[in-house]
Amino acid sequence: MPNGLSRSFSPYLLAHAQDPVDWLPWGEEAISRARALDRPILLSVGYAACHWCHVMHSESFLDPKIAAKINRIAVPVKVDREELPDVDQAYQAVCMAVTRQGGWPLTAFLTPELRPFYIGTYFPPRARFGRPGLSDVLEAVDAAWRERRAEVEEIAADWSRIGSAVPSPADPPPDALQAAYDALVARFDHEHGGFGAAPKFPTPPHLSVLVRAYLRDGAQPALEMLQRTLRAMADGGIRDQLGGGFHRYSVDAAWRVPHFEKMLYDNALLVPLYLAAWQATGDSAMAMVARSTLDYLLRELRDPAGGFYSAQDADSPAGEGAYFTWTAEEMEAVLGKDAPLGIARFGVGQPGSSIEGRSVLRLAASPEELAPIFGWTPGEVEERLAAAGAKLLRARGQRPRPRTDDKVLTGWNGLAITALSRAALALGEPRYLAAARAAADFLLGSMRPQGELLRRWYRGTAGIAGYLEDYAYLAEGLYWLYAASFEERYLTAAGELLLETKERFWDPATGMMHLSPASAPAPLGRQADPYDGALPAAQSVAVRTALLLSGIVPRLGAEALAEATFATQGEIMRRAPLAAASLAEAADLARRGATELTLVGQDDDGRLALWQQEIGRQSLGDLLLTRIDGPRPEPLWQGKAALDGLPTIYACVGARCAPPVRDLGTALAWLRQNR
């Protein structure tokens, strides 16, 4: 018998639609039922690719006895955190403050007024792992609700104030980027790359600080840390060595054994970092990783309508990671006489990269190391390995596949558009540009039907008012698509989204941006989250993009917006520089200014297109690349004309500008001297 989730548009919620638990989606129906029955709400928050969510589902929510107990004492409500990030954020803040840990599944008991009074993450059905069992928790909550109601209400009132405080204004550090960089140096793992100990996450906002530190100051240690980390990740089990793309994180310090889900946002955010490493060093392996990651997105996460799906699961019918792992016997069955080469290359059977007797593939030996062992040249080894990898990928494709979370989220697609556009610009790859354009056109059409940006699209149906990250990430992506295509409609759309971002989310009284629009549910008040996590804080991205486009969209008041943001979060930038790494990047942009290249003139002989391609290969940091036919009224383009009617380049860094020239090499040399 379907429950109240059967009409949802979330794959995660639909996966629970046949549970014996009488789930309802978040909304007024659940609240009204809790009030009418005078029962607490059991709130369960997760997402489709979450392994421990699946575990709790199979252990508890499919158990008839536990389900009956839930239905008897509570009103159960399911939330997909990717659909309603502000609901998740509100209760995650409480969970972190109360238990000193957070994550998913998030399990909370609320009053009918949505105030939490008992909270945690994963609960086994019965006590184990040092955790109380869900069955016991249910009984304890029921007893407290019936017998100690005043105490419950007092706890709920106290906990509901968590996360509602607004930071006091404080001056940011004189050089916020340097503070973040110094914190990274202190945490760097010189043996394995990355920061800290296991588990290891990619943390793109931190790696982006290394890119900026190198481009700003020529800091070789920053470049070395970046290269060490990106190479270790590319060679390790956290990267899918056959199909491309990166898994969520590594459970060990050496990047060998991953948690196997693949998220659109991780892969989209890592591509520009690998491109930056290639631009800075010329290391073709870095460009190859960027290509293989984007090829994975295009092959496995792309919807026919043009958007990109959200994630692929860690679990398959054969168990967690079974789809991606191998035994030596399986290699032999597929590769035949080349099996020893594949086994050596991918470290099959070697210590440290096994899970339940199966090996996670990693690059355990290079072609140069393998060549003398097998009596071939490195080139011959590479050819045989390429053929072996193709055979293994085809064979793997016959296995039962992990589930795909095939909802399309606007913000995460904005990140994908940035990755595809930057790769198209840097690598001169037309199919990446075509994919970026298709995704942008889909979002600006299907996800903006009445002018208001929507968040979620699922199998033909769009819904949910856009959140801050949807506006911020898409605006940034549209700028990069303009830079790669010079189609001005994308630049116009980016400016419009930034203006709407300020109107919908900016609170001048606090100097912060809310995560959600005023129309969204706000159980504990509208949330603001200035901290980076797996993704850069949306507020920081919005401020950075606004600063970049300030000379094109002066109505934004980007400088005042940025100053207020930095003042409000100055204490965070001082106290926790790594939590505000993206904001430190925005502060560095405000302090130093963008690298501006304006190409002026007609492109009758293709010269402007050639300049655009060459600029794309350069390491230029905060690049504002535009093209116009002649002077325009916007501040950035005033007075910029083609000299003698011929294509002309205007180069500026912040307020410093070079004389207009007709030679790109001259303009780039000036930029290198004045950046």
Which secondary structure elements does this structure contain, and how are they paired or packed?
Elements: H1 11-14, E1 24-25, H2 28-37, E2 41-46, H3 51-61, H4 64-73, E3 75-80, H5 85-99, E4 106-110, E5 116-120, H6 134-147, H7 149-159, H8 176-187, H9 204-217, H10 220-235, E6 249-250, E7 258-259, E8 262-263, H11 264-281, H12 284-300, E9 309-312, E10 315-316, E11 319-320, E12 325-326, H13 328-335, H14 339-346, E13 354-355, E14 358-360, H15 367-374, H16 378-396, E15 404-409, H17 410-427, H18 430-446, E16 454-458, E17 461-465, H19 468-485, H20 488-505, E18 506-507, E19 512-513, H21 538-548, H22 558-568, H23 570-575, H24 581-592, E20 595-600, H25 607-616, E21 623-628, E22 648-653, E23 656-657, H26 664-674
Parallel strand pairs: 1-3, 2-3, 20-21
Antiparallel strand pairs: 2-4, 4-5, 6-7, 8-9, 9-15, 10-11, 12-14, 13-14, 15-16, 16-17, 18-19, 20-22, 22-23
Helix pairs in contact: 4-6, 8-9, 9-10, 9-11, 9-24, 10-11, 11-12, 11-17, 12-17, 13-14, 14-16, 15-16, 17-18, 17-19, 17-25, 18-19, 19-20, 19-21, 21-22, 21-24
Strand fraction? 5-15%
- Domain module tally: 4
Q: At the first level of CATH, what is the class of the largest domain?
A: Mainly Alpha
Q: Span from first to last CA?
A: 65 Å
Shape: globular
CATH domain fold name of the largest domain: Glycosyltransferase
Give Rg in angstroms.
26 Å
Strand order of the largest sheet: 1-3-2-4-5
Largest sheet: 5 strands, mixed
Q: How many E strands?
A: 23
Low-confidence parts, pLDDT < 50 over ≥5 residues? Answer: none
Q: What percentage of residues falls in helices of 4 or more residues?
A: 40-55%
Global structural class: alpha+beta
Tell me the CATH architecture of the largest domain.
Answer: Alpha/alpha barrel
Arithmetic mean of pLDDT:
95
Count of alpha and pi helical runs: 26
